[in-house]
Specification:
This protein has 124 residues and is mainly alpha-helical. Helices cover 65% and strands 0% of the residues. The model has no long low-confidence stretch (mean pLDDT 79).
Amino acid sequence: MRIIDRLYQYLHFHALSAYAFERICNLSNGYLGKQYRGKGTMGSEVLHKIQACFPDLNIHWLLTGKGRMIRHALPDALELQEAGDPLQLLYQKITLLEKSLADKEELIVLLKKKRPLKRSALTI
């Protein structure tokens, strides 16, 4: 399954049209259709826009198909107050943050494999 196929699966999950998605992410009209027909590639800038507009979408899942489509949000302060033992809640939050960090590091590795940096980009 391609990235665009998984993106359409996400749109179906949220009952969003391609047009609405393009407008929310400030993408050009017909961008998703072009991707679906295989006439373009989805770059890192577009993925960044998608992640900014739809933070619940797991970008790792979008790229690889591994993991869950929807990211689990960290509990907010009200949930923490109602839940009970603060120390246990902090441990749970640390675990979630560590998992999120590991997912991001894995995503960076995948992106580097997909598009290695040129030697000139490495020099400052």
